Amino acid sequence: MSTIKTGGCQCGRVRYRVDVEDAEAYLCHCRMCQKATGGFAAAFVQVPREALTWESEPDRYESSPIADRPFCSHCGTPLGFHYKDNKGRDDLTIGSFDDPSGFVPSGHYGAESLHEAWIDTSGLPRQRSDGTPSITARWKKEGLDVPE
């Protein structure tokens, strides 16, 4: 059964539609992905190339001689990863999906750069953005509610 999901960048300039029926989610911890996303890992969903339709084309950064990374040059959102010689699959960042729920990682890649302390954070205190007075005050000053 086909499952279509949509996504794009934060400002909305770059959009995509993808059938995620044969998708595989994973975390990549390699240093290139850490630097490209600014995080301890990059969370990706790998999809068949023919399942992905860019409704508006992303910009691309040649991050190495073997790969490029789609992104939005207007807002800076990293949108994925693409091996230049891989004609069959593309990787999209989990955070760029409009609804990233439902994806479950199947593995860790680039484990040589994995930061163990960031893997299991289940014991840390949790605080919602709309429960943080300094954040809600800033949004309220702009006449807006805290976004999800």
Automatic annotation (TrEMBL):
<feature type="compositionally biased region" description="Basic and acidic residues">
    <location>
        <begin position="139"/>
        <end position="148"/>
    </location>
</feature>
<dbReference type="InterPro" id="IPR011057">
    <property type="entry name" value="Mss4-like_sf"/>
</dbReference>
<dbReference type="GO" id="GO:0046872">
    <property type="term" value="F:metal ion binding"/>
</dbReference>
<keyword id="KW-0456">Lyase</keyword>
<feature type="region of interest" description="Disordered">
    <location>
        <begin position="123"/>
        <end position="148"/>
    </location>
</feature>
<dbReference type="Pfam" id="PF04828">
    <property type="entry name" value="GFA"/>
</dbReference>
<dbReference type="GO" id="GO:0016846">
    <property type="term" value="F:carbon-sulfur lyase activity"/>
</dbReference>
<dbReference type="InterPro" id="IPR006913">
    <property type="entry name" value="CENP-V/GFA"/>
</dbReference>
<comment type="similarity">
    <text>Belongs to the Gfa family.</text>
</comment>
<keyword id="KW-0479">Metal-binding</keyword>
<protein>
    <submittedName>
        <fullName>GFA family protein</fullName>
    </submittedName>
</protein>
<feature type="domain" description="CENP-V/GFA">
    <location>
        <begin position="5"/>
        <end position="115"/>
    </location>
</feature>
<keyword id="KW-0862">Zinc</keyword>
